[in-house]
Amino acid sequence: MPKVEVIPQKRPPRGLRPLLRAKLAKLMEELGYAQHAVTVILCSDRRIRELKRRYWGEDAPTDVLSFPTFEPGDPFIPPHLGDIWISLDTAQRQAREAGHTLEDEVLVLAAHALWHLLGHDHASEEAWQGFRRVQERILTL
After folding, report:
1. Which spans of this chain does the record mark as coiled coil (predicted)?
2. Which end of the chain offers a freer environment for a tag, N or C, measured as fewer CB atoms within 10 Å?
3. Residue 72: pLDDT band by 50, 70, 90 thresholds?
4. pTM value?
């Protein structure tokens, strides 16, 4: 079973951490990464803004950032795929705007970031299809 560690830097709603661990682990298993691990850090807009400024040069908060531990195409995929940072502040706003729960929004963001960790990007409409598939799938697991 994949290992999903969830670290709350900002207090999440009760039940979010075990839900996120379970569903992201199931998704990783379905995708063929049962022997791998990821770390998910739940944070504030302030913290994710600092990270985005430092690593992307953009001074604005965002919903999710992913930091892979390997380069796509590398023949060796390490046991730990990388870190996923999710802003609970932005996720809450997006959930309200979309009319669904914070839990669903966080799951979608985690699936999106996992797909990035696995080497995918969304530079084209065709590339977005994979993101949409994993984002929809995590909600049905």
Report:
1. none
2. N
3. confident
4. 0.96
85-117 pLDDT per residue, tens: 999 999 999 999 999 999 999 999 999 999 999
Place of tokens 């979010």: 16
Report the distance separating Cα 69 and Cα 66, nearest Å: 10
DSSP for 66-111, please give it. Answer: EEESS-TT-S---SEEEEEEEEHHHHHHHHHHHTS-HHHHHHHHHH
**Per residue in 10-43, is it b (16+ CB within 10 Å) or e — as a string?**
bebeeebbebbbebbbbbbeebebeebbbbbbbb
User: Would you list which residues are annotated within the binding site for Zn(2+)?
Assistant: 112, 116, 122
Determine phi and psi for 76, rounding to 5 degrees.
-105, 120
3-8 sheet: strands from edge to edge: 3-8, 37-43, 80-87, 64-68
Structure tokens, 6: 């969830």
Binding residues: 112, 116, 122
